[in-house]
Amino acid sequence: MPPITSPVTAQELEILSVKAIEAKSQAYCPYSKFRVGACILTESGEFVVGANVENAAYPVGTCAERVAFGTAVVAGHKKFKALAVATDIKPAASPCGMCRQFIREFTSPSFPVYMYDGEGGYKVMTMDELLPDSFGPDHLPK
After folding, report:
1. pLDDT tens across 2-37, in order?
2. Residue 93 annotated as lining a ligand binding site
3. Beta carbons of 94 and 63 less than 8 angstroms apart
4. Are 97 and 134 contacting, i.e. CB atoms less than 8 angstroms apart?
5. Residue 55 is labelled as binding a ligand
6. How are the residues of the chain apportioned to helix, strand and coil, as percentages rounded to the nearest 5?
7. Dist. CA 90–CA 112, nearest whole Å
């Protein structure tokens, strides 16, 4: 696997990780107790956070990644540099399958996803590694 060339600076990555880890404290997860925080860095340099929001009717809960992307899109952002996702477990958890396709809608196969574990360690993978042979809006007829 070739090394990932990060589009983010060391300072941006530090802020991205801190905000994703802090976002876990806003998670509403009374059923699973599985806190997830996410932070997206927009192409314009803004940081947008999200946390998972569960529901008594389990299938209608929303993952932190989709909360963050939805918030960013509603605020007018459509281009992104990186995503950080933080959980309390080790090793770090990756976005679920639904989130992977949702993220791909707004990113390219080379988009980096930083996954933080409960001890602050992380692993980074591209969307192509998380969702190989994916399709996005660029594959649809215009």
Report:
1. 445 568 999 999 999 999 999 999 999 999 999 999
2. no
3. no
4. no
5. yes
6. 30, 25, 45
7. 20
Is 39 annotated for ligand binding? no
Catalytic status, residue 129: no
CA–CA separation, 59 vs 80, rounded Å?
28
pLDDT tens-digit map of 99-130: 999 999 999 999 999 999 999 899 999 999 99
Q: Rounded to two decimals, what is the model's pTM?
A: 0.92
Enumerate domains of the chain plus CATH numbers. Answer: 10-139 (3.40.140.10)
Answer yes or no: is 99 a known binding residue. Answer: yes
Of the listed 65, 105, 119, 129, which one is catalytic?
65
Residue type, 84: A
Neighbours of 127 (CB within 10 A): 22
Place of tokens 């991205």: 16
